[in-house]
Amino acid sequence: MSLDRRNLLALGLAAPLILAAGKVPMTGAEIVARAHAAAGGETWLRPRSLIMTGHASFFPKRDEASRVEVPNYTMWRVYPEQSTDAHLANGMVRIDARLANGEVYFQTAFDGVETYSQAGRVPGAQASREWSENFGFGIIRFALEPGFTLDRLPDDSAEGRAIYVVRVNDPQGGKTLFGIAQDDFQILWLGFQTARGWHERRYSNFYRKPGISFTQPGLVRLYYDGIKQNQIAWTDYRVGESIPQSWFQIAP
What we know:
The chain is of the alpha+beta class. It has helices at 3-21, 28-39, 42-45, 124-132, and strands spanning 49-58, 68-78, 92-98, 104-110, 115-117, 120-122, 149-158, 161-169, 175-181, 187-194, 197-207, 216-224, 227-239. Strands 6-5-4-3-2-1-13-12-11-10-9-8-7 form a 13-stranded antiparallel sheet.
């Protein structure tokens, strides 16, 4: 290789470093703080409760032929004041999925202690696995608190948009990846390891209701090892309502 060619190659490699030298990259904490603000600030960070309604599609055999349409899909959520484990059940949650004829497709709930399905209380080991695969998103609300660390991973793209990727390391050792839009700081993507495989969620169609500082994704798609398991279109939500604990206890 000639000297001139070596010099040109060196300049080519150095150019991105020179251009980047004048701009200090955002830290993981700065990106997460911007995501909190974009999602709604304090109202979104510490909601008392959330009720979401919409419709969903499920693929129980992991193929299009098994698609099940669920036109009535509702989730009730009471949030915890603190969380240090991304994939441990906390607060209270209930999900009701009903078919067009009113038949229950499935129900699941957690009252803060026990887990329930449409058949009644679920034994401990089975319940723990179910929730470990479903809890994860909420940990970003606590990611700036003591005991957490954040890693800024390589930038990427999701939903056709450039994203920052931040890994949230919780105090219990859990690692959860979040993809945050570089333009408006909405949370577009989530990923973490489960016993069923690598789990991802993709968020889009964001909206806010008038007078409520709370951004809601209108569409959530869930994947295991790259295959879509289900998708949920959230068409309405309510924040801060009182929900009794008894609502999270399903009798057979």
